Amino acid sequence: MRKALLVINCVILAIGNCGGPLIARLYFIHGGNRIWFSSWLETAGCPIILLPIACAYMHRSRTADPTSENKFFYMERPLFLAAVVLGIITGLDNYLYAYGLSRLPVSTASLIIASQLAFTAVFAFLLVKQKFTAYSINAVFLLSIGAGVLALHSSSDRPANEPNREYILGFVMTLAAAVFYALIMPLVELTYKKAKQEISYTLVMEIQLVMCLVATVVCTVGMLAKNDFSAIGREAREFELGETKYYVIVICSAIVWQGFFLGGIGLVFCGSSLLSGIMIAVLLPITEILAVIIFNEKFQAEKGFSLALSLWGFFSYFYGEVKQSKKKKPDPEIEMDSSLPPKTLESNV
């Protein structure tokens, strides 16, 4: 069961990680300019998480012992408060990322975001005592160097009519977004470890729901301050692709971004925060290729070199993981219940 969840979350994360930035950039290049609104869209689609939560509830109602209590929400107060704090950080991160994406090509922004892996590794080591192998260290190093190479030559792909100051600020804001998100994933893993209740995938979805609701509230405050709600109608009418396509882009953006967030914390549940960071970096080549095809973005030599380093880091990490798994002998107790992640099993001992 845990392996199936791992694959499902990888697919969900791939859709969100590749589709989210492309749709957001489509909004900006065709006339959209409301940064807080774009930030709001990254988490505003969270009510759709209620659907799988409801399905899980109905499944428990049919299969559970009639004498046992079947709650719709299992989250207890300490876990709820932790999710609220994570949601506030996520809301701020949304704004930083949306601002950067409004100023940078998708391919450039994606390569900068790849630097989150190095920060994730540091925070994972400090917060959850993440163990590293020579292969994982090599992967982190290569992916970080790849992002650094891009930073040294970033000004050459500045969009037309983009002031140098705005472009540099976009670069800095995107890098800050990478740092914030790199902090969020280890904090999620730490929350799982410190929780005083059993962590199931249903509970993971509840955490995702609370995080995104709080982040949406944070972005709503920003929208109110900038009068974004009153400007949406006018922006839709003036949108280059037409009013109907404007709303289609807005709705699709809200839905697709949920895949990114749920897939990210789902991989933390199935593996670790480092695994989640690795997968985000691994999906970079797909986002790069799609951005070049869809938006005709430039693909200079430094981007190609950065991409090659990213792929090298990807193969290094997973080669090391396969090699390590062959050395380990299976634990009979874990084999008996593979549906629970290692963290959950340890917490129940």
UniProtKB/TrEMBL annotation:
Q: Where in the cell is it found?
A: Membrane
The main place the protein resides is: membrane
Q: Does the keyword Cell wall biogenesis/degradation apply?
A: no
**What residue ranges are annotated as transmembrane?**
35-58, 79-97, 109-128, 135-155, 167-188, 200-225, 245-267, 274-295, 301-320
- Sequence segments annotated as region (Disordered): 325-349
Entry keyword annotation includes Transport: yes
Q: Which GO terms describe its cellular component?
A: membrane
Keywords attached to this Swiss-Prot or TrEMBL record, sorted alphabetically, are:
Membrane, Transmembrane, Transmembrane helix, Transport
Q: Provide a Gene Ontology MF annotation, just one.
A: purine nucleoside transmembrane transporter activity
Q: How does it sit in the membrane?
A: Multi-pass membrane protein
Q: Where is the signal peptide?
A: none
Name the domain of life: Eukaryota
Protein family membership: Belongs to the purine permeases (TC 2.A.7.14) family.
What is the official name of this protein in its record? Probable purine permease
Q: Which organism is it from?
A: Gossypium darwinii
